[in-house]
Amino acid sequence: MSNSAIPANPLLARESPPAFDRILPEHVQPAVEELIRETNEGLEKIEAGLADPSAGTWSNTIEALAVLGRSWECTWSPVTHLMGVKNSDELREAHESVLADVVALGLRMRQSQPIHEALVQIRDDESVWSALDESQQRIISKRIRDAMLAGIALPEAEQKRFNQIAERLSKLSADFSNHVLDATRDWELLLEDPADVEGLSSTLKQLASQSFNDQADDDTAPGDPGTGPWRFTLDAPSAMPFLQHCTIPRLREKLYRAFVTRASGGKLDNTPLIDEILELRRERAALLGFDTFAEMSVATKMADVTAVESMFDLLRDASWDAGQSDLNDLKTLAADRGQAAPMAHWDVAFWAERLREERFDLTDEQLRPYFPLERVLDGLFALTGRLFGIAVEAADGEVPTWHEDVRYFRVGDEAGQQIAAFYLDPYSRPENKRGGAWMDECLVRRRVNDDLQLPVAHLVCNGTPPVGDLPSLMTFREVETLFHEFGHGLQHMLTTVDYADASGINGVEWDAVELPSQFMENWCYHRTTLMGIARHFETGEPLPDELFENLCRARTYRAGSLMLRQLNFGMLDMYLHHQYDPSGEETVLEAQQRIALSTSALEPLPEDRFLCGFQHIFAGGYAAGYYSYKWAELLSADAFSAFEDAGLEDEQAVALTGRRFRDTVLASGGGRHPMDVFRDFRGREPSTDALLRHNGLA
Ligand code: ZN
């Protein structure tokens, strides 16, 4: 290619993979404007071709949209990716300047009336419909369903009400979240006596001293982490370690009470908002023909309400005794160590930490030397080779990247054929990279004309970079996280679906999407796998047995109590969105108390207003969906147990089971209903047995 053929704007060159080394903030606006222009034009063309809805075919609807989507993949996706891994003021500004148009166009593409009508015709015409394969039918059905759920098919008057509700709900959830934020911000615990902060870690004291200094006016002398003053808040990084380590019950009580009554009184009271939100959600569901909001929520998910409720009941019954005995352990320890008062809610986290220290003193620093990144990667790739017959090969330098630490790998199948690739951005770069870890799509597997585009994944972690002669040494949690994200990556990369809307993680129901990722985490507790990885980076010594045993025991520490706590949240969420009647006798707070009684070994505090701070379901996307945390654990534990059943030490059995996992869960993507996919793999519907066993509760 001659130089003059290289367009100046790499975002418009639509190269795959993208030219990450040449994309600059100033490319964003012109490229996205052009993209929007093209997309609008393309969309109009598609819609014009569907003036008569019966003219709709697969190729002039979904496939035509996918062609437009391909341009987004090349122009817009790199921008959102760089926002996460190479952020800057300039990039943020450029992103911001086009965001509203991007969102509006996305909405217009999803809610196109002519396309919707054409798809309905395709679905209703038996001869056309039956000529499509299962994935195609799923893609069309889901698009129709999503449009219906967005109110597209409602008569005008109802549509108007529907939109009013949507608007009001989004205002209410913003208010809800602001109230929690303000209530959190308005509260503080100021301590000046060093005796009050005894037992707190130096990190927490530093945070609290910093918080004091940030709040103090100019006349106040700045405090010092060692001598105070210290300011504690209801923010999780301050409140949680405080409850775990503050040795003075009176102070713990103060903070605890403030925490569980956040946003429950005065101007910031969320109680009336809760009722209105629940009422409006019910009305919205009814407009769309659902009996309850929960029914509407699960219509787009893998589980149904009955399955969720039966999971809750089974798990609750199995965890109850363990929860009681966890509490008794804490009571005994507290009494042994001289606490005269009966165990209160603000004592639980404190004594749980003391008991943890007594039972298994396991620190990150003890484990790190055994987990240099290179070894962990080798171990992970060896495992996925054994399980799925794939070969991962370093291909650094083959493609441009956004940072010199970023690695590139090719993935091949058993026949040596390349089937996918991925970037790995392993280290933390606080100056321009978002925290946490994630898997993202760079390119999805799809057929473009007659060519097959192979999937490429982004795996992003925030591990400790190498320092001097020291390699990158990972905490055990970081190892688990890498396995987790690689699980998502495997579903993205090992898909065999050729339609972008259903390939990889696309179109996979929301409560099923964590199956491959959490499944992979299980291998971190498989002795042979972990011991094969964990070797001291200097001495080459294997991880001492005792440490491995401790890791496994730490995994199930207080499992009954933790389970009950999650069930409390999940059951309350489901109850409020399925049975609860806002005009009935029981108030939401009474419902909260009643359900807490059935899931807590310690009687709930009558003043507890936890619901007023439950942002997951009132201000986040988890309404009638909180169960999905447990559901995903159940699926992944049950999937892993297929390997246990086959014999974890039987290489051939593991390989066979692994191939079956690859050919079902990893291959099917969104092209098949996840319950069918699960049955394909497991031969039956999911069961709670393995989850309970892995948690030491069976
Ligand atoms: Zn995940």
Protein architecture, described:
The chain has 698 residues and is α+β, with helices and mostly antiparallel strands. The protein contains 29 helices and 9 strands. Helix 26 runs antiparallel to helix 27. Zinc ion binds next to helix 19.
Break the fold down into its secondary structure elements and pairings:
Layout: H1 10-13, H2 25-49, H3 62-75, H4 77-85, H5 89-110, H6 113-124, H7 126-129, H8 134-149, H9 156-186, E1 189-191, H10 202-215, E2 230-232, H11 236-245, H12 249-260, H13 271-287, H14 293-298, H15 305-336, H16 345-359, H17 364-367, H18 373-388, E3 391-394, E4 407-412, E5 418-427, E6 438-443, E7 446-448, E8 451-453, E9 456-463, H19 476-493, H20 515-521, H21 527-533, H22 545-555, H23 559-578, H24 588-599, H25 615-618, H26 628-646, H27 651-668, H28 674-682, H29 689-694
Parallel strand pairs: 5-9
Antiparallel strand pairs: 1-2, 3-4, 4-5, 6-9, 7-8
Bound molecules: zinc ion (ZN).
Descriptive labels:
two-stranded antiparallel ribbon, five-stranded mixed beta sheet, alpha+beta, disordered N terminus, 698 residues, 9 strands
Quick take:
This protein has 698 residues and is of the alpha+beta class. Helix content is 56%, strand content 7%. It has a five-stranded mixed beta sheet with strand order 3-4-5-9-6, sandwiched between helices. The protein has a two-stranded antiparallel ribbon with strand order 1-2.
